[in-house]
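thoughts on my protein:
***
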Amino acid sequence: FYNELTDMQIQTGFRGAVNTTGITNAGQATIWGTEVETSLGLTDNLRLDLGYSYLNSNLDNYDIPASIPEFEVTVVPTAVEGDPLPLTPKNTVVASLTYLLPVAESL
C-alpha cells in the first residue's frame, strides 16, 4: 500500500505553567508498506494465525506552531520534518492461537 496524506493532524505537547497536549495541523506525510497474514489449522480444534506488517512513514511537511512567550508556553513537537510519524512502528508481528472447545449438541 501507498498513501500520501495532506492536511494531516498530529499530537503536539505544550509546556508551561500547565503541561498538556493538543492536536495541531501537521501538513503532509507519506506512508507505504506491506502486510502478510496466514492461518494454519494445526488440528480440527486448534488454529494458529500469524501476521507481519512493514510500515515506512515520513512526515514530509510540518509547520511547527510558534511558542507563546507572553503565556510562557513552549511548543514541544512529537516529530519534525523527515521523522517517522509518531506511534507508527516499522515492523509489527502478531500471533494468535485459537482453540475451539467441543460442546455437546444438547446445549
Observations:
- The chain has a mean pLDDT of 90.
- The radius of gyration is 22 Å.
- The chain has no helices and five strands.
- The beta strands are 2-15, 20-41, 46-61, 74-77, 91-99.
